[in-house]
Design brief:
Helices cover about 25% and strands about 35% of the residues. The protein is an alpha+beta fold. The longest helix has 9 residues. The two termini are about 15 Å apart. The mean pLDDT is about 95.
Length: about 70
């Protein structure tokens, strides 16, 4: 089951979302995982740290799913 994360802004950058959702412990860890192609956004590999994640997007990392509201 996916966790739901509520944001109060128009978007959140992918690396910041991974930290906000506690999927990673640091920005450096987020950067490495994203560059390695370990992060999926809406079912597709995303290697852009600054990718804008908006309400309705789904982010997956290591079997954990986060849906942004």
């Amino acid at each position: 089951m996916a966790d739901k994360i509520k944001i109060t802004t128009e978007f959140i950058k992918l690396d910041a979302l991974l930290k906000f959702a506690s999927l990673v412990g640091s920005g450096g860890e987020a950067k490495q995982l994203i560059q390695n192609g370990d992060v999926l956004v809406n079912g597709e590999v995303c290697t852009m740290r600054g990718k804008k994640i908006r309400s309705g997007d789904k982010v997956e990392l290591g079997g954990h799913e986060v849906i942004v509201e």
